Amino acid sequence: MRPFVVIGWLGLAWLLTLLFPSPLLAHEVRPAYLELRERAPGEFSVLWKVPMRGEMKLGLAPVFSGATELSAPMTRLVPGASIESWTLNAPALRGQTLTITGLQATMTDVLARIEYADDTAWTERLTPNEPSATIPAATSAVDVAGLYLILGVEHILFGIDHLLFVFALLILSEGIGPLIKTITAFTVAHSITLALATLGIVDVPQAPVEAVIALSIVFVAAEVVHRDQARAGVAARAPWIVAFGFGLLHGFGFAGALGETGLPEGHIPFALLFFNLGVEVGQLAFVAAILGLAAILRRAPWTPPAWWQRVPIYAIGSVAMFWTMQRIAMF
């Protein structure tokens, strides 16, 4: 059995499992974001950003265990989220426990960040399994590294469109040498634009980027079909070129996700580095898992019919085309 046929059918099974129960979830579940900035001793400006599905906002609320006083919140809506802001008076915020009520009933996370007037800061990720955390006296660069490494891994593993692009590249890149070149080119490209966009050097509208990311999957799927019809184009002959070009766009997509959570002041290069490392760890884990399964299934003592070679890549291209039209309609 040819390797790309095995990989293709693994991809089709994966799509059926992950996509069709929730066809709109072509991207990861966006996290909520809580930010407190100390303007005067014990006085904090609060920003609370909660994801929305249509006109429905997740029923989440931050609660502190100690004595606090709140001003009346002001609310504004932005695409995909509700943002509330208010003033919090808490003379002794350190040592209190922060709890996100309602988080246990969701599938999202909350990234909480507190910036103090003395230039120290605390960043923590709260999850449905751990909706509470105690605010420590200080935080370290190691804490930031671990947090953003996990965020990077989760982003790539739950970013189905990014994984599907990598998956199509696996089918297109037959042989270890071309595969290594292709994955390396994709990694270098998205690392460049992730850094440029996150640091504010380049600003690209997110909606067109998401549409072109979906279209990139359609393009690679079409190139696989052309190759199998003996009409191989540049993508089949040198897939690393396509991986690099579209990888630049995928980097802007990663930057959009990182922009949802923000970067900690004073640790921006460190957090960006480890978020990118997390993306690479997740990507390599995905590639290794697929290639390992393909190696096992290639030993199967039976030969599939010829039409097996076509079904998976057509399914991948069809789903990606649906995403493309859906995202264009949202402009």
Give a description of the structure.
There is one protein chain. This protein is α+β, with helices and mostly antiparallel strands. It contains nine helices and eleven strands. The protein has helices at 3-18, 141-158, 160-172, 176-198, 206-228, 234-237, 239-261, 268-297, 311-329; strands at residues 32-40, 43-53, 56-57, 61-64, 69-70, 74-78, 81-89, 97-101, 110-115, 121-126, 132-134. Strands 1, 2, 3, 5, 6, 7, 9 and 10 form an eight-stranded mixed β-sheet that branches. The protein has a three-stranded antiparallel β-sheet with strand order 4-8-11, with no helix packed on it. Strand 9 (110-115) and strand 10 (121-126) form a beta hairpin.
Distance between the termini: 43 Å
By oligomeric state, this entry counts as single chain
Please compute the radius of gyration using only Cα atoms: 22 Å
- Largest sheet descriptor: 8 strands, mixed
- The gross shape turns out to be elongated
Mean pLDDT over the residues: 82
Taken in chain order, the helices and strands follow as HEEEEEEEEEEEHHHHHHHH
Measured by DSSP, the beta-strand proportion falls in 15-25%
Uncertain segments of ≥5 residues (pLDDT<50)? 16-28
Structural class: alpha+beta
The total count of strands amounts to: 11
* Number of continuous helical runs: 9
Helix content, binned percent: 40-55%
